[in-house]
Request: fold
Amino acid sequence: MSEQGYTKCHSNHYVYLKMQNDGSYIILLLYVDDMLVVGSNMQEINAPKIKLANSFAMKYLGATKQILGMRITRDMKNHKLTLSQSEYIEKVSKRFNMKMPNQLVYLWLAISI
Reply:
């Protein structure tokens, strides 16, 4: 990916980042045989998908709603992307017979680019 201009994230080696001169960005998240492409510009998102499709067998599954146990919610109007692990928390709490409080504590993940 580095030959395509992507930089590997220091804290997670499955995440690659590419910043454009105009301030837009692309984030590639790779996990086994899954890839999630996130970016601020749809044309920039499509470019790596086309290049990678020339080298690998790929299938587009549509907009991602869940990955690695995280629910993804998009708020296009406010330009927000929310990740939630509430279903995973509930699953783990049931597995270990933990009672959940009436209100779950939500942790917000912010990625500094």
Q: What stands out?
A: The beta strands are 7-8, 15-19, 25-31, 34-39, 66-67, 70-75, 80-84. The CA atoms of residues 21 and 44 lie 12 Å apart. Residues 106-113 have pLDDT under 50 and may be disordered. Residues 42-53 form the longest helix (12 residues).
